[in-house]
Amino acid sequence: MTDVTIEKPVLEPNGALSVETVLSVKHWNEHLFSFRISRPASFRFRSGEFVMIGLKGDNGKPLLRAYSVASPSWDEEIEFLSIKVQDGPLTSKLQLIQPGDQIYLGRKPTGTLVTDALLPGKRLFMLSTGTGLAPFLSLSRDPDVYEFYEQVVIVHSVRRVSDLAFREELDGKWSQDPLVSEQAPGQFHYVPTVTREPYDGHTQRIDKLVESGALFEGVPGAAKFDPETDRIMMCGSMEMIKQFAAYFEGEGFTEGSNAAPGQFVIERAFVG
């Protein structure tokens, strides 16, 4: 028998896109994976931002989607967290990538899930569902975040236990991280919740955890959100974002942006 070699498409950079190399891939389960790619020396971003990435489409043109960067701004590589959609135009191809493959990377990251879009405060709550965790992985490894806030909280709601990507690192409060291993153990809090499977921790949706006060267990301060001291970031399902945006506005919080910082921010360009 003759070995068959499948030729990978060669990608060409342009003014808006660089071509990077896939360095590693981790499949968390059958519909969730993360991967790391090379980082060009000229690529600069703020922790929490997103960027366009993609592959060559069937028409030969770049097929791109917005992805939040999961690695912190100081990392020498760039990491992403993605769902697998079997008939998705991009993710049906993206889930098949292997180390050594090429991938497009946009040259201009942007986004509102950045500390610049928030007013100063004491506690930072990052509310996420599914792969909406990605930008908060970036922010929770950024030493500046621990200078800006006394308490840093990631809330991650998923359907199944295996969807808790990076659970070990988050449970360990980034104790092995080179830049935040000293601050994070005393300031970082991880609140995972699993809604569709038995789990030895929280099993309610985020709104129920807020109502019961369970979301605030172990976090210094009041067992409720306070617009004077608390700052909120949200990323994930549109249902969750719409629900909580209305909730926070009702509680006296104002939405922030890069141009006008406020008390909560959401990512409107989130995919997945």
Number of strands: 11
Strand order of the largest sheet: 4-3-6-1-2-5
H-E string: EEEEEHEEHHEHHEHEHE
Report the structural category.
alpha/beta
**pLDDT averaged residue by residue:** 94
- Give the radius of gyration: 19 Å
User: What is the multimeric organization of the chains shown?
Assistant: single chain
What portion of residues belong to β-strands? 25-35%
Weakly predicted, low-confidence segments: none
Distance between the termini: 41 Å
Helix content: 10-25%
Mind summarizing the main beta sheet? 6 strands, antiparallel
Number of helices: 7
Q: Given the C-alpha coordinates, what overall shape results?
A: globular
InterPro entries: Cbr1-like_FAD-bd_dom, FAD-bd_FR_type, Flavoprot_Pyr_Nucl_cyt_Rdtase, FNR_bac, FNR_nucleotide-bd, FNR_type-1, OxRdtase_FAD/NAD-bd, Riboflavin_synthase-like_b-brl
EC number: 1.18.1.2
Enzyme class: oxidoreductase
Catalytic activity: 2 reduced [2Fe-2S]-[ferredoxin] + NADP(+) + H(+) = 2 oxidized [2Fe-2S]-[ferredoxin] + NADPH
Describe the model.
Keywords: FAD, Flavoprotein, NADP, Nucleotide-binding, Oxidoreductase. Belongs to the ferredoxin--NADP reductase type 1 family. Its cofactor is FAD. Its EC number is 1.18.1.2. It is an enzyme of class 1 (oxidoreductase). The chain has 272 residues and is α/β, with parallel strands linked by helices. 17% of the residues lie in helices and 28% in strands. It is built from seven helices and eleven strands. The chain has helices spanning 91-94, 134-139, 143-148, 167-171, 184-187, 206-212, 238-250, and strands at 17-29, 32-38, 50-56, 62-68, 77-83, 102-106, 123-129, 151-158, 188-194, 230-235, 264-266. A six-stranded antiparallel sheet has the order 4-3-6-1-2-5. The longest helix is centred in the last third of the chain and has 13 residues, at 238-250. It starts with 16 loop residues before the first strand and ends in a 6-residue tail after the last strand. The model has no long low-confidence stretch (mean pLDDT 94).
